[in-house]
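Sample entry follows:

_____
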Amino acid sequence: MSETYILFAQHGWADTNQSMMTLTERLAGGNAQIVAPCLNYAMTWLRMAPLIDQVDALATATLARQPSLPLRIVGHSMGGLIWLE
C-alpha cells in the first residue's frame, strides 16, 4: 500500500481549479489529500502578491494540521510561480 501524502495543486492565470482537480485526482490514486484552491478567475488578472499570500496561508494551515505527511506540489503556469515564491 502506498503512503498517504498531501498533494498541493495550483491552477494558472485566467483559470480555475477544476482542471487541476481532474488532473490531481487521476495522478493521486487514492492516497493523497488533495489541496487545490481556486484563486478566483478575475483575481488572477490583478496582482500576484495577494495570491501568493493566500496559497501560503492555506499551505501553512494544512501542514500545521498534518506536519508528518510528505507533500507533493503541482503548479501550472502562474500556479508554479506562486509555489516558487
